[in-house]
Specification:
By secondary structure, the protein is α/β, with parallel strands linked by helices. The chain has a single domain (about 10-230), classed as Rossmann fold. About 30% of the residues lie in helices and about 20% in strands. It is built from six helices and nine strands. The strands form two sheets. Strands 1-9-8-5-2-3 form a six-stranded parallel β-sheet, covered by helices on one side. Strands 4-7-6 form a three-stranded antiparallel β-sheet. Helix 2 (about 45-55) packs parallel to helix 3 (about 85-100). The chain is globular. Bound molecules: 6-phosphogluconic acid (6PG). 6-phosphogluconic acid binds next to helix 2 and strand 4. Belongs to the glucosamine/galactosamine-6-phosphate isomerase family. 6-phosphogluconolactonase subfamily.
């Protein structure tokens, strides 16, 4: 990582979601002026989805060449296709369907993790998602070059599906299956910490007083087993995009 994380405070959750959206669109424009394609990793969770909905509302949405943008997920709930808990479905409803129908995002650029099938275990499904990621890796690499990787932060300081004190935290490789997630649903597929930390920019987003302890622990250098959120970082930049309440203000 280059330097300490930058903490950007917004007054409330709505402004924060709009700020994340504006920042993402501006970042995509900046990148598209120098390189292509772009790989963006989106997150589930309330604020993650609210931020995607804010992208759809932002007039800059029409300035991006969406045909050259790829979407991935940092984690996915391993539930059947169409289950309302699936991060994919929520992201499609908030933004991705609109980008496909009105802004030229090719459906093939939306790279989902597998849906639950009772013949496929969660670890096998996680490996299949890892293979998809691998196909978009530059020569010699194992993952796409993630330009922006967004992560919600849980009240226990988890990110993606990497929970405090959970064995998933120390797994190596690109992806792993989680069988007993403390946050429902229990079965999940997640990028590993190592995989997250290959991203150029990691953006952690948090809002509300219920996140204040988690944010304080993560920014206060608590060990990884207590605050996984404090142990993710971009190779170029790490941003904490938060509202005042999540800083205890
Ligand atoms: O699929 C998920 O559940 C997530 O990706 C998870 O890591 C989420 O981002 C955080 O738990 C924050 O979620 P909230 O914003 O809803 O608190």
């Amino acid at each position: 990582m280059t330097g300490s994380p930058l903490v950007v405070v917004h007054p409330d959750a709505t402004t924060l979601a709009d700020g994340v959206a504006a920042r993402l669109l501006t970042r995509l424009l900046d990148i598209q002026s120098v390189r292509s394609p772009i790989h963006v990793v989106v997150t589930g969770g309330t604020l993650g989805i609210a931020s995607l909905a804010a992208v759809a509302r932002n007039p800059l949405v029409s300035a991006i060449d969406w045909s050259a943008v790829h979407f991935w997920w940092g984690d996915e709930r391993y539930v059947p296709a169409g289950d309302p808990d699936r991060n994919e479905g929520q992201a499609r409803a908030a933004l991705l369907d609109f980008l496909v129908s009105s802004h030229g995002l090719p459906p093939r650029n939306v790279h989902v993790a597998p849906c639950f099938r009772d013949t496929v275990g969660v670890e096998e499904a996680a490996l299949a998602y890892g293979s998809d990621l691998n196909e978009f890796a530059p020569v010699g690499g194992s993952l796409p070059s993630f330009d922006v990787l967004m992560l919600g932060v849980g009240p226990d300081a988890h990110v993606a599906s990497l929970f405090p004190g959970h064995p998933g935290l120390s797994r190596t490789g690109i992806t792993t299956g989680i069988e007993d997630s403390p946050k429902p649903p229990p079965l999940r597929i997640t990028l590993t910490l190592d995989a997250i930390n290959t991203a150029r920019e990691v953006w952690l987003i948090a809002s509300g007083a219920s996140k204040a302890d988690a944010v304080a622990r993560a920014l206060g250098s608590a060990p990884v087993d207590e605050a996984p959120a404090g142990h993710v970082h971009g190779t170029e930049r790490t941003l904490w995009l938060v509202d005042a309440a999540s800083l205890g203000e």
